[in-house]
């Protein structure tokens, strides 16, 4: 089965340790060999600027990560940059599509020019915040809980014009609802159901239903802390619970996966890295029909790519 994973943090790991090999390093959750072994069709690679980077350096660090994307990721044999449905359709059976995304607008400060530059370099999905506040909006862990700023609304409008995804993962609740009013192409690249795991990073039922109404996609993520809060070990069953819950809200055609591999310290048992996707697929097929699983794994994200 084809797989579209909307979010991983390999670029951040390469930034932290430039000696790490994307090809087959055991320290990475997502590697070239792992993607081939799993049969992944499209992998999203996020630009995430660490909190310790000074504001005046953040845009340069984003450019540095984009350089890693082109020099270390898509330089691998049969890795191809994808920005649209057409480019995904053109992938050969042995090729893997790599989609560039932005996790948090800290990199652009208060500059639409810098955002346009990142879009021109290949970014196709933009998360407005990480967990804190920036010039665009407040994040999920910002106590103030503010919504979109005036500049934030300009950012969403630009994403609409450029036919890019506006990613609501990591947003405060108020900012989420502001985005729902403005965004043409909203998604949550890596978020789970708050009803099952009451973490600020997860989406409440009315938020999930709003994304469904806006024809968005919710990328169920494999981060243990977002799957359950009452156990030391998480299993694939915990992931399935979130899929089932979103289905119960009418989300069968709006569920995808955004693993957040390489963005977590702990992992789900038997889903420790991208190469374990085949086992995960086997478990999905025990609980859902094959056509449903195809939607979850690939079709729901693919069909909602704006271009």
TrEMBL record:
GO MF term (any one): metallodipeptidase activity
PROSITE patterns: RENAL_DIPEPTIDASE_2
The protein, known as: Membrane dipeptidase (Peptidase family M19)
Pfam families for the chain: Peptidase_M19
Superkingdom field: Bacteria
GO biological process, one term: proteolysis
């Amino acid at each position: 089965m084809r797989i579209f994973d909307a979010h991983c943090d390999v670029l951040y790991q390469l930034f932290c340790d430039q000696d790490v090999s994307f090809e087959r390093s055991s320290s990475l959750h997502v590697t070239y060999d792992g993607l081939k072994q799993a049969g992944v069709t499209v992998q999203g690679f996020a630009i995430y600027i660490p909190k310790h980077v000074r504001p005046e350096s953040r845009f340069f660090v984003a450019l540095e990560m984009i350089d890693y994307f082109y020099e270390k990721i898509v330089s691998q044999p049969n890795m191809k940059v994808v920005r649209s449905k057409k480019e995904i359709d053109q992938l050969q059976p042995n090729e893997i599509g790599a989609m560039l995304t932005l996790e948090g607008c800290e990199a652009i400060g208060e500059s639409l020019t810098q955002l346009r530059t990142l879009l021109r370099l290949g970014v196709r999905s933009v998360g407005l915040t990480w967990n804190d506040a920036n010039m665009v909006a407040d994040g999920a862990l910002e106590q103030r809980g503010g919504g979109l700023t005036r500049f934030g609304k300009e950012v969403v409008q630009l994403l609409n014009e450029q036919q890019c995804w506006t990613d609501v993962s990591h947003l405060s609740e108020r900012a989420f609802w502001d985005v729902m009013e403005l965004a043409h192409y909203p998604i949550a690249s890596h978020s789970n159901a708050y009803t099952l795991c009451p973490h600020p990073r997860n989406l409440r039922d009315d938020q999930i239903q709003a994304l469904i109404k806006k024809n968005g996609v919710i990328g169920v993520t494999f981060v243990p802390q977002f799957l359950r809060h009452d156990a030391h070990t998480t299993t694939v069953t915990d992931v399935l619970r979130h899929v089932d819950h979103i289905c119960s809200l009418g989300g069968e055609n709006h569920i995808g996966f955004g693993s957040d591999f390489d963005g977590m310290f702990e992992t789900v048992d038997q889903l420790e890295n991208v190469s374990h996707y085949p086992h995960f697929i086997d478990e999905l097929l025990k609980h859902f029909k094959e056509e449903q699983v195809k939607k979850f794994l690939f079709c729901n994200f693919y069909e909602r790519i704006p271009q």
